[in-house]
Amino acid sequence: MKNKILMYLFVFALLLVVFQYVNSKNILEAYDVKYERSLEKKQAYEDTISVLRDRILTLSEFKLDQTEAALSYFEARGFNVSELIPFIKDEIYELNALPGEEHVLIPYASMTGAKMLINSIRILNHKWIIANFSDGKYWGELLIHYEITEDEQLKFKLIDSFLYPTQ
Fold first, then answer.
1. How many domains does the chain fold into?
2. Which end of the chain lies in a sparser environment, N or C, as judged by fewer CB atoms within 10 Å?
3. Do 2 and 68 belong to one domain?
4. Could you tell me if 43 and 73 lie in one domain?
């Protein structure tokens, strides 16, 4: 009887060890799969970050606050560029508020009855600005030359413009 109890205990212990081994193996395999997936996701995220950094670098090529020569030009004239950029943008946006049906810089008349307004501005360097405009239905872009005179007045001159064709 004592031998049978010991044999049942031995078989029970053996089954318990086999169960623990199989369970642990399954858990480790599941963790390995999760770890591999997380490594793949991490690599995908790193690739995405790299692409976004390249895109940011490309977009910042034609931007006043990223162009060293343009910054040096204004600093040599005694301007604070961090204050100058918002000032230039505000001056252009204030042209939207001038009374009248036509905008001072936009050479196209509105075809919808609404006034053509400048929507967004990008200051390319110390001489040029690119802007887009719209009346709600029709839209286009402008290339503007700007200059700060000796008496610190801002002057704008339209270089070129185009209106996108409607579809």
1. 2
2. C
3. no
4. no
Q: Model pTM? A: 0.67
Maximum Cα–Cα distance across the chain: 113
* Domain end position, chosen among 33, 59, 85: 59
CA 130 – CA 85 distance, rounded (Å): 13
Length of the chain: 167
- In the block, tokens 């991490």 appear at 42
Regarding whether 130 and 101 lie in a shared domain, the answer is yes
Predicted local distance difference test score (pLDDT) of residue 166: 79
Domain of 6, in residue numbers: 1-59
Whether the Cβ atoms of residue 118 and residue 136 lie closer than 8 Å to each other: no
Residue 111 has pLDDT above 90, yes or no: no
61: pLDDT strictly greater than 80: no
Write the CA distances from 118 to 42, 77, 140, 166, integer angstroms: 42, 28, 9, 18
Contact by Cβ (8 Å): 138, 112? yes
